[in-house]
Design brief:
heterodimer; A: 356 residues; alpha/beta; Glutathione S-transferase Yfyf (Class Pi), Chain A, domain 2; Rossmann fold; 2 domains; four-stranded parallel β-sheet; 8% strand; B: 257 residues; Fumarate Reductase Iron-sulfur Protein, Chain B, domain 2
């Protein structure tokens, strides 16, 4: 096959993602803000795709947020990661899949640094032995969870109950894809499609019937910036960057945003709420926002899961206009019920951003 | 040499020229250059400014990564010390967009990380408002890591500190057990799963890692310098924590004087 232009460049950034047997590590942010997404990643890969994904109760944070907030030395972050590798080795796995984009970036950065400076790897091995009496083999492959969902996008499409289309017109939904910065901006060859033509999310959208829309600030950061959000005094940075993206995508009227980073769906959701409450500006139709979904939430909708099982009720931007457009059936009364339909109070409503 | 400059005079002038023209290369740069992030992030900067053009921080803050890398590249200890004591190095969001675009494969973000590490180690972080924020960050994030096994956790995420999380998350926090159970998590339970309780033996291993690798020493250093600064500012540590977490003076942003 002869590749031309962009297609050729893009072909340089393909990944041979292993088919099966993965050691899974969770994300600090995703398990706190999108726990149902992690739950459905395991459900889809194990039950729908029949894959072996192993999780040990003994794994922990990779320390990435503490590291990128500059609160711990590099050696501390590296040794925490080395411990995760040791747990993987002890469990008999060689492929590691991370739920978090910053973890993916962190593991990749560490392995690349060790490759360039082997004496540092030796020192970290000594630290790990001294502190935990553990040893490790480096993973044969490190993937982000969205890489697996991308790899199996066509299998998911084959089992789909719904497609990403307007059920009343048959037109494809207009989808903005937002890729977490640490997926491929540091090491482009580690991401599907690199940093310039990443297709890890657009590939899912294409396979599931949606239309990816391009816009000027497509690759701009969501604005997390670690300390720039975590410290209250700095949040102007965070919301300003998100605002820049929304102003840029607004003329293209997206129906939804798909993300693969822990922080991005949170910021792209919550800063819409803040912008609406502070300025009255909303980016969706009729006073609603634009829903920002994780790839598991979108895969779950395509596979026909209940939107409240997927956790779409804990977004601040209302999901109902999207569900209606897709023709998804849902019970509005069940939105805020607890386990086994337990009645718990309902959340308050924003003043400006329209919600249910 | 007649009326001209004597040899010793000529030598003196040359020495003066060398003294004035070349910066005082020294200990700070030497220390900085030991950091692997500097080795990775600063190879052959040509000062083109592409990093600044792509930088989300430069868009809003008075921040120019090109200038920072240039300063480090000059290896002048006085300039580096001034940088370590400034707000400037704390404006970066570490998104690493600069790495993608740099035509020489440098990483201004990595240089920033090395500078911040040195500022923390030397205690220079207390000299600037943005640097002093290292105290609340260090306390919150590492408290979570060492006590709960993760950097962020709903049990320590206070709505009052995060009103932007919205009424929906205020509701989640008020009904944590019910909501997380509904969404398939294993909140503070045994075994695997999201938000599980991390076994004490694993937390002990994290603590041992901090002890062996300099993490504990870093926490103590940040605490010690922050205490001294709080005393200088006439604040208790509680007041200092709240102030450094919340206070933003005018002048940090591009559209401010």
């Amino acid at each position: 096959m002869i590749y031309e232009g962009k297609q050729k460049i893009w072909s340089d950034y393909q990944k041979e993602i292993p088919d099966d047997h993965w050691f899974y590590v969770r994300s600090c942010i995703r398990q706190s803000f999108f726990p149902a997404s992690e739950h459905h990643f395991l459900k889809i890969t194990r039950e729908v795709l029949g894959k072996d994904i192993y999780e040990t109760p003994h794994h922990t944070t990779c320390g990435g947020i503490a590291y990128h907030s500059d609160t711990i030395p590099q050696e501390t972050a590296m040794t925490i990661v080395a411990r995760q590798f040791a747990l993987m080795t002890e469990a008999g796995y060689k492929n590691l899949v991370t739920s978090c984009i910053s973890s993916f970036g962190n593991y990749t950065e560490i392995l690349e640094t060790w490759r360039e400076f082997p004496e540092l790897e030796t020192r970290i091995r000594e630290y790990l032995w001294k502190s935990c009496r553990r040893e490790f083999e480096k993973p044969a492959y490190v993937a982000h969870a969205s890489d697996l969902m991308y790899k199996f996008r066509n299998e998911i499409a084959e089992k789909a109950q719904r497609r990403l289309v307007d059920h009343s017109t048959g037109e494809p939904l207009r989808v903005v894809e937002h890729i977490g910065c640490h997926y491929s901006k540091m090491f482009p060859h580690k991401g599907v499609g690199g940093a310039e033509y990443p297709c890890v999310l657009s590939g899912m959208v294409d396979a599931w019937g949606g239309q990816v829309i391009d816009y000027p600030e497509r690759r701009h950061c969501c604005g997390f910036g670690f300390r720039q959000y975590l410290v209250k005094a700095n949040r102007g940075y965070s919301v300003s960057n998100t605002h820049k993206k929304f102003e840029s995508m607004e003329p293209y009227h997206p129906d939804l945003i798909i993300t693969n980073c822990p922080g991005c769906p949170y910021f792209l959701d919550r800063w819409q709420y803040v912008i609406a409450e502070q300025t009255g500006k909303t980016y969706g139709r009729d006073g609603f926002g634009i829903p920002a979904l994780t790839y598991e939430e979108l895969a779950g909708l395509v596979l026909g899961y209940d939107p409240w099982d997927l956790g779409l009720q804990i977004h601040q931007v209302a999901i109902e206009p999207l569900l209606d457009k897709m023709g998804v059936e849902y019970d509005p009364q069940a939105k805020y019920l607890g386990l086994n339909k337990k009645e718990i109070l309902r959340p308050g409503l924003p003043q400006n951003l329209k919600c249910f | 040499m007649g009326k001209g400059v004597s040899f010793s005079g000529f030598f003196y002038i040359c020495s003066l020229y060398v003294y004035v023209s070349f910066p005082k290369m020294g200990k700070l740069y030497d220390e900085l250059s030991q950091d692997y992030r500097l080795k990775e992030g600063l190879k052959t900067c040509i000062n083109c400014g592409t990093c600044t053009a792509i930088c989300p921080a430069a868009e809003f803050y008075k921040y120019d990564p090109r200038k920072i890398v240039d300063t480090v590249q000059r290896q002048d200890d006085e300039e580096i010390e001034a940088l370590l004591k400034s707000d400037t190095i704390w404006y970066c969001g570490e998104c690493m967009s600069c790495m993608t675009r740099c035509p020489r494969k440098n990483g201004a973000g990595l240089v920033i990380m090395a500078l911040r590490n040195l500022a923390a180690k030397k205690g220079y972080f207390t000299c600037s408002e943005k640097g002093r924020q290292l105290y609340p960050l260090t306390k919150a994030l590492n408290g979570n890591v060492l006590n709960l096994g993760y950097c962020v956790h709903p049990s320590t995420f206070a709505y009052a500190d995060h009103p932007e999380s919205g009424p929906v998350f205020e509701w989640v926090l008020a009904h944590k057990e019910d909501v997380y159970a509904r969404l398939g998590a294993n909140y503070q339970g045994d075994g695997a799963g999201a938000l599980r309780r991390i076994p004490q033996e694993d937390l002990d291993e994290l603590k041992a890692i901090y002890d062996v690798t300099g993490g504990t020493e870093r926490l103590e250093t940040v605490e010690r310098f922050s205490k001294a600064k709080a005393e200088e500012m006439g604040m208790t540590m509680e007041e200092y924590l709240a102030y450094t977490f919340s206070h933003c003076s005018p002048g940090h942003f591009n559209d401010e004087d």
